[in-house]
Task: structure prediction
Amino acid sequence: MYTYIHDEIVPAEKAFLHVRDLSIQRGYGVFDFLKTQDGYPLFLIDYLTRFYNSADIMHMSVPRRPEEVISIIHQLIKKNNLADSGIKMILTGGYSEDGYQPGKPNLIITQHPLTLPSEDQIRKGVKIITHDHVRDLPAVKTINYSTGIWLIDKIKESNAYDVLYHQKSIVSEFPRCNFFIVKKDNTVVTPADYVLYGITRKNVLTLAAHKHKVEEGIITIEDIYNAKEAFLTSTTKRIVPIVQINNTYINDGEPGTVTFSLLRDLMALEAKEIAHQKSSYN
Amino acid sequence: MYTYIHDEIVPAEKAFLHVRDLSIQRGYGVFDFLKTQDGYPLFLIDYLTRFYNSADIMHMSVPRRPEEVISIIHQLIKKNNLADSGIKMILTGGYSEDGYQPGKPNLIITQHPLTLPSEDQIRKGVKIITHDHVRDLPAVKTINYSTGIWLIDKIKESNAYDVLYHQKSIVSEFPRCNFFIVKKDNTVVTPADYVLYGITRKNVLTLAAHKHKVEEGIITIEDIYNAKEAFLTSTTKRIVPIVQINNTYINDGEPGTVTFSLLRDLMALEAKEIAHQKSSYN
Result:
């Protein structure tokens, strides 16, 4: 496998940062993550736009123009020869003189095999737990996952799949996924605030609007207990049905038809995007 | 200069981590920072205890016993030959297989020259600004300084020295310092909650108690406006008088006598600790 770092593509095992880097010193950096299918990157412009926007908000400048990053990503896809993969762009605070002031940002682009949810998890749905927390600067995809990683043990102990953040019972997001419910009247709702605006979240909202009423609004834990269906979305996981929150089953404890229908629509959208890229390249 | 990393002491310019490290991937790590004077580490056991405690809370294990870390620090002090310096211990989440699950933690120990506050800043006092924020897991010295570093530009634009965090006007701490006020009746007060429990904070509380009433309690921004004196404490900065908060001068806008008296007492305590170490080593 190959990685882009320090302005060149090198074997992945040679991708190092000096410990003066502000990611190591102070956890300062942003990133983004997209996937490839059949060797083509999905919704690349959406992810790139968010990546540059995150950098901008954190007062960092990506040292390469978007066209150059696109070219690097295509070179990595060719060299690494992984059909289905995850591609991660990280922009760190750079080599700091005093361990606090940012330096010239370091841009790293890596590619990896994907770990997808299992068929069983999609077919049966998953359990989630809740935790009172709001991320710093939630609309920015910073590298700060202290609380998320700190909660890994609690998730395991609870036999849960993931942890949903809330503030005084108003829910927001998972560490790495967005959250949706389907109300009894089939309205599809996702939290409007204190979330990272996921690309899959955006695509699901668009797809759902073809068939249902959709809302970006407020969801309380009580609303989840009263929901017909619930699911999470992410780039890697697409859509995973949620059937239990803490010790309470949602509705009958089975994944719902709206959830599965949206998953089919999302996979069709991805296939359409790949087909479009294939025809453009040929 | 030399750095301890990957179980050995190497020239500082050769201290690298692979980009799979969870500090780079997810900002996951803890650290601690102490200083040396005349070649002796000050209050080393206090800092070590906090470092191991931070690691423990974050579900990480320091790969070396405290006695071994003490020995490494003394080796670094000898090799680097810096009389007055800062020593930083960083423990990262380690090399992660999937960019999220922690690996075996990486321990890094570095030594640097110190940047102290200027004589002018101590003599005249400094201006601070305020920002509504609370750190994640504030009692733990994690490497997450996203908000602090994000605020560097705002501090500069305001011609301020530092930024004091508050939640709905109840103040807590600076990104890297603790906060104190001296009330009109000479009571010395520092916030009890949502703070990192600084070693200098602890020493100042002890010293102040010899001469004044001391309190760990709640301080509001209004309380600061009504204070007689205010100051910040940190390992590097010791005690720096604060004479202005946002656009309001505190009392007469001059540093106060209690502040300076505590600074003299703190420097005497440091000198006593160094003298004690010198006599123990000889």
Summary: Chain A touches chain B through 47 residues (CB under 8 Å). Residues 257-281 of chain A form the longest helix (25 residues).
